[in-house]
Design goal:
globular; PilM
Protein backbone atom coordinates (compact mmCIF):
# COMPACT_ATOMS: atom_id res chain seq x y z
CA UNK A 1 0.00 0.00 0.00
CA UNK A 2 1.27 3.48 -0.83
CA UNK A 3 1.59 6.35 1.56
CA UNK A 4 -1.33 8.38 0.27
CA UNK A 5 -4.91 7.56 -0.78
CA UNK A 6 -4.36 7.85 -4.50
CA UNK A 7 -1.84 4.98 -4.24
CA UNK A 8 -4.39 2.63 -2.68
CA UNK A 9 -6.09 0.05 -4.85
CA UNK A 10 -9.70 0.29 -5.92
CA UNK A 11 -10.30 -3.10 -4.29
CA UNK A 12 -9.37 -1.63 -0.90
CA UNK A 13 -11.51 1.46 -1.44
CA UNK A 14 -14.53 -0.59 -2.53
CA UNK A 15 -14.40 -2.81 0.55
CA UNK A 16 -17.77 -2.60 2.34
CA UNK A 17 -16.22 -2.56 5.82
CA UNK A 18 -13.92 0.26 4.82
CA UNK A 19 -16.82 2.36 3.58
CA UNK A 20 -18.80 1.67 6.76
CA UNK A 21 -15.79 2.71 8.88
CA UNK A 22 -15.31 5.89 6.82
CA UNK A 23 -18.98 6.84 7.26
CA UNK A 24 -18.74 6.12 11.00
CA UNK A 25 -15.66 8.38 11.23
CA UNK A 26 -17.40 11.21 9.35
CA UNK A 27 -20.65 10.93 11.31
CA UNK A 28 -18.77 10.91 14.62
CA UNK A 29 -16.82 13.98 13.52
CA UNK A 30 -19.98 15.88 12.56
CA UNK A 31 -21.80 14.97 15.79
CA UNK A 32 -18.87 16.14 17.89
CA UNK A 33 -18.33 19.27 15.78
CA UNK A 34 -21.89 20.40 16.51
CA UNK A 35 -21.90 19.57 20.22
CA UNK A 36 -20.81 21.59 23.24
CA UNK A 37 -19.01 18.62 24.73
CA UNK A 38 -15.27 18.38 25.23
CA UNK A 39 -15.53 14.70 24.34
CA UNK A 40 -18.34 13.07 22.40
CA UNK A 41 -20.99 11.09 24.19
CA UNK A 42 -20.41 7.38 23.90
CA UNK A 43 -22.43 5.94 21.07
CA UNK A 44 -21.93 2.38 22.28
CA UNK A 45 -20.32 0.05 19.76
CA UNK A 46 -17.60 1.72 17.76
CA UNK A 47 -16.68 0.75 14.20
CA UNK A 48 -13.16 2.04 14.77
CA UNK A 49 -11.47 3.50 17.86
CA UNK A 50 -11.54 7.29 17.60
CA UNK A 51 -9.53 9.77 19.65
CA UNK A 52 -10.77 13.30 20.26
CA UNK A 53 -9.08 16.45 21.51
CA UNK A 54 -10.21 20.06 21.62
CA UNK A 55 -7.79 22.96 22.23
CA UNK A 56 -9.70 26.20 22.23
CA UNK A 57 -11.07 26.49 18.69
CA UNK A 58 -8.94 23.62 17.34
CA UNK A 59 -10.57 20.20 17.00
CA UNK A 60 -8.70 16.95 16.42
CA UNK A 61 -10.25 13.57 15.68
CA UNK A 62 -7.98 10.69 14.72
CA UNK A 63 -7.73 6.95 14.36
CA UNK A 64 -5.12 4.42 13.35
CA UNK A 65 -4.79 4.02 9.61
CA UNK A 66 -6.05 0.77 8.13
CA UNK A 67 -5.55 -0.43 4.55
CA UNK A 68 -7.92 1.55 2.35
CA UNK A 69 -9.43 3.74 5.09
CA UNK A 70 -7.76 6.98 3.95
CA UNK A 71 -8.94 6.36 0.40
CA UNK A 72 -12.46 5.59 1.59
CA UNK A 73 -12.54 8.77 3.66
CA UNK A 74 -11.54 10.78 0.62
CA UNK A 75 -14.22 9.16 -1.55
CA UNK A 76 -17.00 9.39 1.05
CA UNK A 77 -16.09 12.98 2.06
CA UNK A 78 -15.80 14.09 -1.59
CA UNK A 79 -12.08 14.82 -1.12
CA UNK A 80 -12.33 16.97 2.00
CA UNK A 81 -9.18 18.96 2.71
CA UNK A 82 -9.71 18.48 6.47
CA UNK A 83 -8.06 15.03 6.50
CA UNK A 84 -4.36 14.43 7.11
CA UNK A 85 -2.00 11.48 7.51
CA UNK A 86 0.65 11.40 10.25
CA UNK A 87 3.73 9.47 9.10
CA UNK A 88 7.32 9.46 10.32
CA UNK A 89 6.54 12.23 12.83
CA UNK A 90 5.29 14.51 10.02
CA UNK A 91 1.78 15.53 9.07
CA UNK A 92 0.77 15.40 5.39
CA UNK A 93 -2.37 16.37 3.56
CA UNK A 94 -4.01 13.62 1.53
CA UNK A 95 -2.05 14.63 -1.56
CA UNK A 96 1.34 14.14 0.10
CA UNK A 97 2.22 17.75 0.93
CA UNK A 98 3.77 18.25 4.37
CA UNK A 99 1.75 20.65 6.53
CA UNK A 100 2.61 22.47 9.73
CA UNK A 101 -0.25 21.90 12.18
CA UNK A 102 0.41 21.32 15.86
CA UNK A 103 -0.93 17.88 16.75
CA UNK A 104 -1.92 16.15 19.99
CA UNK A 105 0.98 14.58 21.89
CA UNK A 106 -0.62 11.15 22.03
CA UNK A 107 -1.16 10.85 18.26
CA UNK A 108 0.96 8.01 16.89
CA UNK A 109 2.52 7.41 13.50
CA UNK A 110 0.19 5.95 10.89
CA UNK A 111 -2.82 7.92 12.10
CA UNK A 112 -5.51 9.61 10.03
CA UNK A 113 -6.44 13.03 11.40
CA UNK A 114 -9.56 15.12 10.84
CA UNK A 115 -8.65 18.68 11.90
CA UNK A 116 -10.62 21.90 11.84
CA UNK A 117 -10.85 25.24 13.59
CA UNK A 118 -14.11 26.76 14.59
Amino acid sequence: MGLFPQAQTQRQIDDENCQREAIFFLNSSVRWQHSDQTLPASAGYSEIPLHFERRGSQHYIWTAEKPGLAGCLMVVSEHSRLFYIFRHHRLYDMYGTAVNIEIPNDMTDDSILYYYQG
